[in-house]
Amino acid sequence: MGKSYLEFELLLQIEWSGLQIPKVEYQAIPSRRFRWDGAYPEIKLLYEIEGGIWAGHNGTQSGHTSGVGLSRDYEKNNLAVINGWRVLYFTAEMIRNGEAMSLLEKELEEK
To answer: Mean pLDDT, to the nearest integer, of 62-89?
Structure first.
């Protein structure tokens, strides 16, 4: 699966900041097919970009806002936590206003 515009935008911000580049489309639970948008395996940190959270505001649904999609996301992220991972979630606004970078910088500096 290709990267979304938001995934690409965050990766550019990370590169420009000089932070370590994350692994992308990372499969943190080897026995499952779930993948996270980005990962820093050495500190067990995953992130997900939730670009479609407003898709249902006009009656439409994306894969992440449907009941099936939300259930799958909950299962995926609960498995990550149970297996010792921390998961950060970023919206488009958080990427654009720098909040996503601030959170990543803080997490990477502390470890």
So the answer is: 86
Q: Which residues, including other chains, have CB under 8 Å from residue 62's CB and lie 6 or more apart?
A: 52, 55, 56, 69
SS3 assignment, position 37: strand
Q: What is the number of alpha carbons within 13 Å of residue 79 lying toward its C-beta?
A: 16
Per the listing, tokens 């965050």 go with 10
Domain range summary for the chain, segments of one domain joined by +: 45-111
Predicted pLDDT of residue 2: 54
Return the SS3 of 1: coil
DSSP 8-33: HHHHHHHHHHTPPPPEEEE-SSTTS-
* Three-class SS state of 40: strand
